[in-house]
Amino acid sequence: MSAGGDVLDLRTCQLKPGAAEAFGRIFEQEALPLLTRLDIDVVAHGRSLEDADAQYLIRSFASLAERNERLDAFYGSDEWRKHRADVLALIDSYHVVLLPAAPVRDALIG
């Protein structure tokens, strides 16, 4: 887990009540290995500290173009499509924020 790229992709998911265990299992067993195989740098992931039904995923990319290319490969893969409906059934809403990594790295180092 590192923040080696220039772009951080922060995704938060508000899950349906009681869905965190199933969501976590699918993420750990299916999504995370696929992200790793596709060379997508997962910086951090897990449950919110204040809401058991909220999850986060932080990914790092060298550029916006790389992000788009790698996420197209992930979300377009047959492996992901097998689990897509099951995952979406567990999510009430999600949000994505793209951040420049340099200020985050500078704050952590400085």
Task: Explain what you see.
By secondary structure, the protein is an alpha+beta fold. The protein has one domain: Alpha-Beta Plaits. It has four helices and four strands. A four-stranded antiparallel sheet has the order 2-3-1-4. A hairpin with a 6-residue loop joins β2 and β3. α1 runs antiparallel to α3. The longest helix has 18 residues, at 20-37. The radius of gyration is 14 Å and the shape is globular.
What's the helix and strand layout?
Layout: E1 7-15, H1 20-37, E2 41-47, E3 54-61, H2 64-75, H3 78-88, E4 91-100, H4 101-109
Antiparallel strand pairs: 1-3, 1-4, 2-3
Helix pairs in contact: 1-3
The topology string of helices and strands comes to: EHEEHHEH
The whole-angstrom Rg is 14 Å
Strand content: 25-35%
In whole angstroms, how far apart are the ends?
20 Å
Would you give the CATH topology?
Alpha-Beta Plaits
Largest sheet: 4 strands, antiparallel
Q: What form results from the Cα inertia axes?
A: globular
State the name of the first-level CATH class. Alpha Beta
Structural class estimated from helices and strands: alpha+beta
Note the quaternary state here: single chain
Structural domain count:
1
Number of strands: 4
In short:
The chain is of the alpha+beta class and 110 residues long. It has 4 helices and 4 strands; from the N terminus they run βαββααβα. Strands 2-3-1-4 form a 4-stranded antiparallel sheet.
